[in-house]
Amino acid sequence: QNKPYLAPSKLEAIVKANHPGADPSYIYYYGKDRPAVALSNIGKEGFYSTYLNPYTGQVTHEERLQSNFFVIVEYIHLYLLLPPAIGGVVVGTSVLLFVVIMITGIILWWPKRKTDRKRSFTIKWNGRWRRVNYDLHNVLGFYATAIALILAITGLSISFDWVRKGIYNAGNLGKQYTLEKQIVKSDSLQKGFTSSIPVADRALAIAQQRSPNAQMFLVYMDKVSAAGTIGVTAYAKTLHFYNNDTYTFDKYTGKLLHYLPQQKKSPGLKLNEMNYDIHVGQIGGLTGKIIAFLASLICASLPVTGLIIWLGKRNKSKGKKIRTAVHHKTHKRQTRVPA
User: Fold this and answer.
1) What is the C-alpha separation between 199 and 179, in angstroms, rounded?
2) Are residues 49 and 96 in the same domain?
3) What is the mean pLDDT of residues 171-199?
4) Which candidate among 47, 56, 151, 205 keeps its CA 20 to 30 Å from the CA of 91?
5) Are residues 95 and 202 in the same domain?
6) 146 within some domain
7) Distance from C-alpha of 47 to C-alpha of 65, rounded to nearest angstrom
8) 222 pLDDT exceeds 70?
9) Distance between CA 247 and CA 234 in Å, rounded?
10) Counted domains in the chain
11) Are residues 282 and 259 in the same domain?
């Protein structure tokens, strides 16, 4: 529809009417043909997502995030359902080891002779099953490594601040961007000031005016932090997070305190904001998601094919030792001098 969205304060009031204890912190406007979503903390009930018609305010769906299948899968992926402080380190360390294994695997895979090149790039489907398994591990592993390394590094950026800072500094070649490091705070002297228009509503209107081509908006209220601000992020494309303009407003006066458009962001910040879209492949649309999925599927098969190779070598080594021992024993009997 071409009608204007209902203001954040209106959607917030609807959520609170349905759940008196609700405290909406984030409101997403996903676009003209999608519902708006309010994320709320409802005390002991936990976090809820409320889906509303962005034009009428009609509630179309509600769900408790702790019971959502995909949220649970995401927490397994990020933290193994452990406390984030522990699970994040466990998962991040595992991914770090995976990166080392991939790099050393490429070194082992690298063909040492020209005659080995064809064999290193193709799977011999008509070979024995052990040879096919060996080729599946080496050849598919090689083709997936470039994508897998990118997915792994973006995953490390989620787990570790030092990786995220390293990407930021590398992208900026050490150059400092003070506008991005600016700490924005409200004017606490205006704490009692009451605006005729709710600040969140005014903030969204300004963001829509300054970012007219944005398809998705996120409004987030700072209800806890001493910064006392309300933020709006305007995304160029729905469900794509790497191209956005950010706005920060004084929670009490509605004054625009900070504005950072996409074109003024540093290369390092742009790289970090592309992190999620690269990690899930959506930066390349459906094709990118399929490529990321196939690369992940191949990576999931590598421990299995690698274990089979290791067991085969282990059994072969045991068999060789047994044959050597038998040979020595037989040889001693044959060479024994009669008394």
Assistant:
1) 23
2) no
3) 78
4) 47
5) no
6) yes
7) 6
8) no
9) 8
10) 3
11) no
Distance of CA 305 to the CA centre of its chain: 27
| Residue bearing tokens 């063909």 | 111
Angle among Cα 152, 153, 158 to the nearest 5 degrees reads 95
Tell me the sheet residues that pair with 28: 37, 218
Q: Look at residues 138, 111, 104 and name the one whose alpha carbon lies nearest to residue 124.
A: 138
Domain containing residue 189: 185-264
Q: What's the rounded Cα separation, in Å, for the pair 99 and 298?
A: 15
Q: Is 87 inside a domain boundary?
A: yes
Distance from C-alpha of 2 to C-alpha of 19, rounded to nearest angstrom: 30
Tokens representing 169 are 């500094």
Rounded CA separation 21/15 (Å)? 10
| Full-model pTM | 0.83
> What are 33-50's pLDDT values in tens digits?
899 999 998 878 889 999
The answer to whether 9 touches 201, Cβ cutoff 8 Å, is yes
Shortest CA distance to 8 belongs to which of 212, 217, 248? Answer: 217
> Which strands form 216-221's sheet, in the order they lie side by side?
59-64, 47-52, 36-41, 23-29, 216-221, 229-237, 240-250, 256-260
**CA-to-CA distance for 40 and 294, rounded, in angstroms?**
36
Which pLDDT score, from 0 to 100, does residue 253 have?
Answer: 85
Phi-psi region of 53 (alpha: psi -120 to 50; beta: other; left: phi over 0): beta
Confidence of residue 182 (pLDDT cuts 50, 70, 90): confident
Judge contact between 180 and 260, C-beta under 8 A.
yes
Q: Same domain, yes or no, for 167 and 196?
A: no
The DSSP-derived string for 12-77 is HHHHHHH-TT-EEEEEEE--TTS-EEEEEE-GGG-EEEEEE-TTT--EEEEEEGGG-HHHHHHHHH
Q: Calculate the average pLDDT of the chain.
A: 87
286 and 171 co-located in one domain: yes
Report pLDDT digits (tens) over 309-321: 988 877 666 555 5
